[in-house]
Amino acid sequence: MSRYSAYAGSWILLLLSIPLALRWPGWWWGVAGGGMLVVLGTWDLLQTRTTLRRNYPILAHFRYGLEAVGPEMRQYFIESDTAEAPFSRQQRALVYRRAKNVMDVVPFGTLQDAYAVDYEWINHSLAPSWIASHDFRVTVGAGRAQAYQASVFNISAMSFGSLSANAVRALNEGARRGGFYHDTGEGSISPYHLEHGGDLVWEIGSGYFGCRDAQGGFDPERFAVQAARPQVRMIEVKLSQGAKPGHGGVLPAAKVSAEIAATRGVPMGVDCVSPASHSAFSTPRGLLEFVARLRELSGGKPVGFKLAIGHPWEWFGIAKAMREAASQGLDLLPDFIVVDGAEGGTGAAPAEFIDHIGVPMHEALLLVHNTLVGLDLRDRVRVAAAGKITSAFDIARTLALGADWCNAARGYMFALGCIQSLSCHTDRCPTGIATQNPNRWKHLDPADKAARVHNFHDNTLRALRDLLCAAGLEHPSELGPEHILRRVSPVEIRSLAALYRYLRPGELLHGIPEHAVFHDFWAEARSDAFRPPARVDALRRSKN
After folding, report:
1. What pTM value is reported for the model?
2. What is the pLDDT of residues 440-497, one digit of tens each?
3. 461 is a domain residue
4. Hey, CA dihedral for 377, 379, 380, 383, is it positive or negative?
5. Distance CA 447, CA 351 (A)
6. In sequence order, what E strands does 175-265 have?
7. Residue 334's CB: how many other CB atoms inside 10 A?
8. Helix (H) or strand (E) holding 435
9. Residue 510 counted as domain residue
10. Number of domains comprising the chain
11. CB 446 within 8 A of CB 169
12. Which domain holds residue 37?
């Protein structure tokens, strides 16, 4: 209860000052000061717009006051560029402005150094276009019984358990208002996902939460019941997560409440563990058969999978299995693939996993896109991407690289009011977002935060529309790597089309291109196993 210490202290000051002031008039300053603090603290508790003030009455104002001193303090507290707070101050400030519907203009020109290496921009046209609507959609599962029209910007996977009940409520209501989807995360579909009716993508991880049997394996009957919900628009099999690929997941026992245990179908009071690998399949072909089985059990809803790229031969094995199934006329292709970049976030992971495992989103997305193009499958499989996407330019650049739509997690958390306190794993989140402590999360007002989630999505897509108009384009699908420019040295500029090698349609069907990763690993990748190529395996064995 130390977070209420300043508020309690103000009452003590007031109550002690009144009798002292009656005896010694000089003590009326104590009555005035204590009274003002009591009024301020009471107002903090009663207002609903700022969860931090509700959880830390009076104390929160010290933080806000130091922010107001000037850029130096503001940078230190909420806009720092330290390793501990990986989002830049410009990124977070942009999200806050859009979520709160604050005027989205900047004086005195660009905030970026236009001559810095890696500075990027989108080229404009002398014949700008005009686009009436910013509600950009992508058809997923075309030809399926229940195809879905997805927004180009959606809420990425964050589970109930990692997030609080009110945070989930706010995200789903915001998604409902804006007509975009809310990925459940692998923690299954909670009652809070269902209250407001927002579109859901049900993510199924290796723990099979919400569709598991007593031994922790996949239960088709339980899956079919959940998948039949009208709110569930697509199903996503999680193979790996960008922030901690190959690690699995753990929800600490302290956060496994009775509700979470019931939602996930796990015992209460022990760590809730997602294994590092699936038990329902063990080969690339097995993955595709599992995807097809889920599609049948769900009544024809789009089914895909999410992965962070690691060993390229494993992704190539999946791609080869897809090509073989297509050539045999088998309906085993995923309807979509979500590429999760290594820069993706998490509530908690070992430092080495966060910093040094997994392929960053740009290179991972390019590999997946190139492979599908080279196999003549790109028009049959949609591709999404996630990894530190917060702005319209981030979306435009990601679509230009090869994605059909984008997902974001931390951007929407900032819209909820996250201050990046880095306490997600402690159950002591000061803003009530990443905690199961009702004394904290009940102070997060779902109605107010839902409006901010909706605003963030809406204003970001309006900005995307303006970028497209400036570039003379009609739809995000027209973006290509030739539209994005990058300074690669003080005197050199390259488009993404010039920087990256893009395969031609069907190129992998007619030989192995002179492209390092394909040249090295494509021929030996296998559709019946995730094993490494023979020469890689031999080298590994020789070292042992």
Report:
1. 0.87
2. 888 889 999 999 999 999 999 999 999 999 999 999 999 999 999 999 999 999 999 9
3. yes
4. positive
5. 35
6. 182-183, 200-204, 232-238, 249-251
7. 24
8. none
9. no
10. 2
11. yes
12. 2-77
